[in-house]
Amino acid sequence: MFKLLIHGGAGAVRRDHYSNQEISEYKKSLKEVLDFGVEQLAHEQSAEDVVVKVVSLLEDNPLFNSGRGSVLTSDGRVQMDAAVMCGQDGSCGAVTLAESIKNPVQMAQWVMRKTPHRLLGGRDVDLLAKAQGFQMEDVDYFVTEKRREQLAAAKAKGAIQLDHDSEDHSQTVGAVALDVFGNVAAATSTGGLTNKMPGRVSDSAIVGAGTFADNQSLAFSATGTGDVFIQNMSGFDAHALMVYSKKSLSEACDEVLEKVKVRGGRGGVIALRANGESYMAFNSLGMFRGQMDSEMKWEVAIF
Amino acid sequence: MFKLLIHGGAGAVRRDHYSNQEISEYKKSLKEVLDFGVEQLAHEQSAEDVVVKVVSLLEDNPLFNSGRGSVLTSDGRVQMDAAVMCGQDGSCGAVTLAESIKNPVQMAQWVMRKTPHRLLGGRDVDLLAKAQGFQMEDVDYFVTEKRREQLAAAKAKGAIQLDHDSEDHSQTVGAVALDVFGNVAAATSTGGLTNKMPGRVSDSAIVGAGTFADNQSLAFSATGTGDVFIQNMSGFDAHALMVYSKKSLSEACDEVLEKVKVRGGRGGVIALRANGESYMAFNSLGMFRGQMDSEMKWEVAIF
Predict the structure, then answer these.
(1) What ipTM describes this predicted complex?
(2) Which entry of A73, A96, A172, A194 is annotated as an active-site residue?
(3) Do A207 and B233 touch (CB under 8 A)?
(4) Is B119 within 8 Å of A196 when comparing Cβ atoms?
(5) pLDDT of residue A14
(6) Which residue of chain A has the CA closest to B206?
(7) CATH match for B3-301 among 3.40.50.720, 3.60.20.30, 3.90.1570.10, 3.40.50.2300
(8) Across the strands, what pairs with B85?
């Protein structure tokens, strides 16, 4: 048995903001990523490797807010965060404030496997990635015309655009997987918020906030009002609710999202247990999402 | 009723590494900081302001590993982290990878109070602090001869020095306070690990890892093997153990330290409840620590 869930961000995703063609492009991209990931899981790839590969594909896709197509800071730069965590042994790695790494999630996996540290950031992580032979890209690769327009619109309104706020379409990406060995893993990657302050670290870089995995509880990837997910330690909270309070997967995820709402945030989560049980939920208007399992049953949805 | 606990780091602090004069210097510094903080609490200052002021004093003291006297990265630089959290409403702020801010904990408080974000880092946080009028310092201010020697010794051994590892004396600092209004707060500040990789973010910058505060559970500041405290989300875990599993303050802190040990780490915590109950514990050889309350009962200890 194996299973894969992915998301491409949650927020004020309104049907009337998208043409039929855009909707079908998003759905096609999500389905292609599911097909690729499930093929990998069927070939006995580990959940860790699959979430990293799947999130890499989403980073490469300019439709989503991670890697290529990341949203812009208030001074027009790309600053990217990513994290990965393994449910088998709790090993984890993350990067923050990366500006030139093509696939931040791959560097997060390298931090996990090759360093004694858990989170590396800033200019140093770009220099280290380059020295280690990771593919680097320049501003022209990452920045799309759509993101320039979104920043201009946000600045005109003087507002920091939370994920999918109003017309914003900033799609943090993530994946949770269960492999044939019974292990779960989670990965998340983001360009953050349109018009965010330079230097802002998101929940996607923080294990226990936007990303978490433990075989005894759940694999978890979040999207939404990241600053509240940091404050609430939402990923670890879902774990604690299941292990300490014996809540079910859906109860834990619903409670975590409700706590985000209480603090003025919103967003969505995808979650998966080692027994194959899964749950996707959001308290925003929509969430780009999909899931597929070893029976080849699949679903892709936005609203 | 009010109360203040402080720490100046936990680790392999061996009595025979210190002269009698050094011991009395450390104890004198800790007592002066307690006196100052308790005076502030007696004058009805908030727990939030007191932990920030107290940690600022420890940052200014080159005996400890934060602000002036921070340990050095493998390439000989100072990169500082700090966080603050309020138990009343869960508001929090943090900075990471600061290289020029005299008092990183004061910038963490600014992030909390003046921005929509929770964690700012890298070169951008230095630029922002400067633009906001915070006192900035250059390398000569932060780097002491003792830290240069410690880096040279660590590099000669090819080892990353965890807090207080063997001859290392790298003293992360922190404070937890209860004010006369019944609110608790926590703050932590550090230069990290001697010979750490450039760009490494410590648990001191991550709310829920090395710093946590909630009036319904505890105020918490940790020191030790930071990468494990990040992985374990130790601060939030202590909170969850108390709220969800109904563990006592000491049971929660002991369990959190035991989990750090299971993953190969060690360290210490100071913790305080809104009812005035407090606890200090460490599974390393020693922890620089002190506490003082509204009855003017006080204690300063290292081993």
Answers:
(1) 0.94
(2) A172
(3) yes
(4) no
(5) 81
(6) A206
(7) 3.60.20.30
(8) B92, B186
For the stretch A104-142, pLDDT in tens is: 999 999 999 999 999 999 999 999 999 999 999 999 999
Q: What is the residue extent of each domain of chain A? A: 3-301
State the pLDDT at residue B263. Answer: 95
Q: Mark yes or no for CB contact B90/A263 under 8 Å.
A: yes
Catalytic residues of B: 172
Q: How far is B239 from chain A (nearest CA, A)?
A: 10
pLDDT by residue (tens digit) across A1-20?
999 999 999 887 888 888 99
CB contact under 8 A, A120 and B201: yes
Average the pLDDT over A72-89 and give the result: 97
Residue in B with minimal Cα distance to A99: B122
Asked if the C-beta of B241 comes within 8 angstroms of chain A's C-beta atoms, the answer is: yes
Residue A172 designated active-site: yes
Query: Nearest-CA distance from B209 to chain A in Å?
Result: 9
What's the 3-state SS for chain A? CCEEEEEEEEECCCHHHCCHHHHHHHHHHHHHHHHHHHHHHHCCCCHHHHHHHHHHHHHHCCCCCCCCCCCCECCCCCCEEEEEEECCCCCEEEEEEECCECCHHHHHHHHHHHCCCCEEECHHHHHHHHHCCCCECCHHHHCCHHHHHHHHHHHHHCCCECCCCCCCCCCCEEEEEECCCCCEEEEEEECCCECECCCECCHHHCECCCEEECCCCCEEEEEECHHHHHHHCHHHHHHHHHHCCCCCHHHHHHHHHHHHHHCCCCEEEEEECCCCCEEEEECCCEEEEEEEECCCCEEEECC
CA distance B173 to B62: 12
The Cα A96–Cα A119 span in angstroms is: 7
Query: How far does CA A165 lie from the centroid of its chain?
Result: 17
